[in-house]
Amino acid sequence: MAAARVLLLSGRPESVSFAQSVCGLLGAGPGLGPWPTYCGLKRGELVLSDRPFPGASARLPLQRPPFCPFSALDQQPRAPGAELPTNRGVDLAVAVVLQSSDQTVLLTRRTQTLNVSPNLWVPPGGHVEPDEELLDGGLRELWEESGLQLPQGQFSGVPLGLWESAYPPRLSWGLPKYHHIILYLLVISQESQQQLQARIQPNPREVSALMWLGPDVAAAVAATEDGTETPRHLPQDLPPSVLAVELEENGGARPLVLPTSTLLRTTPATADSKERVSTGTKFALRLWLQHLGRFSLFLHTLCFQVELG
Fold first, then answer.
1. Of 76, 79, 90, 211, which sees the most CB atoms within 10 A?
2. Closest among 178, 184, 165, 173 to 71, alpha carbons compared
């Protein structure tokens, strides 16, 4: 775990300390981003730079939430006793946005007993192990959480973007204890949602429910912006609920009719564990829809509806 680190290239690759804002070090301004970032995707590590460098294999959007605690800590004096770890760097995680052949993506709800981000809807993912290829790490996490193993030759992978993640996610919740850069990987399967769902065996220690989102609902979720006071207008034809599968204590599963409004919640100013979609997942859904060519069309339709209203 200790070898899986985020490095910044400034002459030579250097580790980023826990308390530093990665976006800030790469020159992020006061805006919301995202910021194009050059990446070297290597075994167990991620090298980042704001300019091209030998070995850079991708140029990806990097984003953080508007309430990122590391950004806030950069801009205000540290309160007495407000100590952050000095012997840790920024960890590397990978999350798999699994797309079925009929263009739906898999989200899982983290169990309430987890110490980090309980009860949030996220793609399968987790830490990258030392010397592990990033795609291999993503596929391992997909298997560990959902039981899905994708047949060789029946899927392809595309890096979507990078997210600077903290937990707790806001300073008003307390000082951050975890700091990650999450690489969101789009994995496109040749199998349908029905074929994939038939093989899913969720890990009950980490997953309490799962669902498949289509582009229309995903676009509405992605358009709800955390950190803003005024919510966006939503499409008039948005379904009132989505169908999910919830795990039971006896090891079985049952259908779950989940109100769409649950997926549209934003991160509250005070700590709670209400069910919602994580802010980073909304960013990943936007990138997925852009890959499909759907998000700009959704926003255009939304603006048209608002004008008519």
1. 90
2. 165
Burial class for 63, CB neighbours closer than 10 Å (0-12, 13-18, 19+) = buried
Rounded to whole angstroms, the Cα distance separating 303 from 305 reads 5
CA distance 215 to 105: 9
Q: Where are the beta strands (DSSP E) in the chain?
A: 5-10, 12-15, 35-42, 45-49, 58-63, 91-99, 105-110, 120-122, 125-127, 155-167, 178-189, 207-213, 241-247, 253-259, 276-277
Give the three-state DSSP class for 104. coil
Whether residue 235 has a cis bond before it, omega within 30° of 0: no
Peptide bond just before 151 cis, omega within 30 deg: no
Structural domain spans, the chain: 5-24+31-73+88-307
5-24+31-73+88-307 falls under which CATH superfamily? Nucleoside Triphosphate Pyrophosphohydrolase (3.90.79.10)
pLDDT in tens, 265-305: 999 989 988 999 999 999 999 999 999 996 554 444 444 34
pTM, rounded to two decimals? 0.91
Distance of alpha carbon 299 from alpha carbon 285, whole angstroms: 14
Q: Mind listing the pLDDT tens digit for each residue in 63-107?
A: 999 999 999 887 776 655 567 888 889 999 999 999 999 999 999
Q: Can you tell me which residue has the tokens 């599963």?
A: 253
CB-based contacts of 272: which residues, under 8 Å, 6+ apart?
none
